[in-house]
Amino acid sequence: xxxxxxxxxxxxxxxxxxxxxxxxxxxxxxxxxxxxxxxxxxxxxxxxxxxxxxxxxxxxxxxxxxxxxxxxxxxxxxxxxxx
Length: 83
Fold this sequence. Notes:
This protein is mainly α. It has one domain (15-81). It is 58% helix and 0% strand. The chain has 3 helices and no strands.
């Protein structure tokens, strides 16, 4: 997670979720724990957004050399041979 200024906020959590948090995370570490959890979930949401925005970009007619699994395997083999 990036180092930035810390701003205090108030959030509401379901009682059962708060009980689990209290049971597993010491009070002095809860803000950091929640910040890391939110950061991880935001990263996943950003990745899903990027995937959804790029859906449909690939067109078979633009890549006639990669229509079959064998074509793709050969392309990967060629690519990896340069490593």
